[in-house]
Amino acid sequence: MITCAKSDCQISPKIIRLSEIKQNIVNSRNNRQKSRSHDINCKGLLLTVLAQQSAIFQDPCNRN
Questions:
Q1: Which residues pair with 10 in a beta bridge?
Q2: What is the pTM of this model?
Q3: Bridge-partner residues for 4, per DSSP?
Q4: pLDDT bucket at 18, cuts 50 / 70 / 90
Q5: What domain of life is recorded for the organism (predicted)?
Q6: How would you label 10-32 residue by residue, b for 16+ Cβ within 10 Å and e otherwise?
Q7: Distance between CA atoms of 13 and 2, rounded to whole angstroms?
Q8: HSE on the CB side for 35, CA within 13 Å?
Q9: Which of 47, 9, 19, 33 lies closest to 56 in space, CA to CA?
Q10: What would the pLDDT profile of 38-48 be if each residue is shown by its tens digit?
Q11: Gap between the Cα atoms of 18 and 28, Å rounded
Q12: Mapped to the 3 state alphabet, what secondary structure does the chain carry?
């Protein structure tokens, strides 16, 4: 953090604890994993819907 008063600027260092850094890394990894899992679920749902609408995957005996 930088605080300036008139011509005199001071830089006061922000203390970052190692535990905070570790927690940030863990949170980032978890968020990436959730995002990947969500993408896979969406792709699976899309493929399921497309397969249900495709004539290849429908039962030939149940045609209207």
A1: 3
A2: 0.38
A3: 9
A4: confident
A5: Bacteria
A6: eeeeeeeeeeeeeeeeeeeeeee
A7: 8
A8: 6
A9: 47
A10: 777 788 888 88
A11: 15
A12: CEEEECCEEEECCCCCCHHHHHHHHHHHHHHHHHHHHHHHHHHHHHHHHHHHHCHHHCCHHHCC
Between the CA of residue 64 and those of 31, 51, 59, 60, what are the distances in Å? 46, 18, 11, 10
Cα distances (angstroms) measured from residue 32 to each of 19, 37, 49, 61, 63: 20, 9, 26, 45, 44
Structure tokens at 1: 């953090």
Look up tokens 């290849």; give the residue: 56
- In 3D space, the residue among 34, 31, 54 whose CA is nearest the CA of residue 42 turns out to be 34
Q: Which amino acid is at 40?
A: I
